[in-house]
Amino acid sequence: MKAWQLSENGEPQDVLRLDEVADPRPGEGQLVVRVLATPVNFPDVLLCRGQYQIKPPLPFTPGVELCGEVVEVGEGVTGFAPGDRVLGSAALPTGGFAELALMDAPRTFPAPESLSDAEAASLFIGYQTGHFGLHRRAGLREGETLLVHAAAGGVGSAAVQLGKAAGAKVIGVVGGPKKAEVAKELGADLVVDRQSEDFVPIVKEFTGGKGADVVYDPVGGDTYARSTKCIAFEGRILIIGFAGGTIPTPGLNHALIKNYSIVGLHWGLYNERNPQLVVDTHRELARLADEGLIRPLISERLPLDAVADGVRRVGEGSTVGRVVYDRSV
């Protein structure tokens, strides 16, 4: 089969190579799937750079989530059969940027019929993260104000849709006019272009001086620092990631004075510590998708030979929505 592999770490465009490799065979509890679609996630960029918390042995194929058709099931796998359309995590080092991939059965779920292959492939990590963050960690309530940073990106666009589905007022912060249009299309009640506007006074004005009840921050750095200036009393700042490249150092005295919470989310740990919550969340996300309340924003569908460039552009932050390797292209 053909698969993108890296034998050394570096920038995606420099280290990824499309090679011919042996077809994978399933281990115990695993499935082999024919890859139908694989979105590019920021962790794929970090995997290439050697900066992700998981470091598969070299060489390996990135692509951390996917939608696929089951080809073969390994020993001990129940509930799946060849021909099933599924979504979930790829079992690295045999990731989704390939013609075939491995998946672990506990992290594999039925793909909703209401979604295309590219959409279904994008329903897992970003939407699970958003749902766990907004509901389990931050306790977002109907009528509250949610501030979403990087609102036109893969993770941010999911949070905007989930916030609206929960009945919140959503403010989306983006970088550039094109991304502002995307955030509006996603349903954000107010969109702020950080390249030309300061979101702090705009959030205060929109909320009548109260501030945002929940901040969804996958960026970090100065974005986090400025979010503390427009967080509401008893608000919650969700720490999702550090795509901006800088890990902030919170001023805990400020959190004390304003009575807000700094809430961390490492969604991957739930797969190990309470996998039933992930199963339940998938069912809820599938329901929301079937009812048309959420739908992954697919901005680009790429053939297999264009994956490396797609990973590069996601790493540069120049894309909107989800950039997806789609087998049908």
TrEMBL record:
One of its GO terms (molecular function) is zinc ion binding. Keywords: Oxidoreductase. It is an enzyme of class 1 (oxidoreductase). Its EC number is 1.6.5.5. It comes from the Bacteria. Residues 14-325 form the Enoyl reductase (ER) domain. This is NADPH2:quinone reductase.
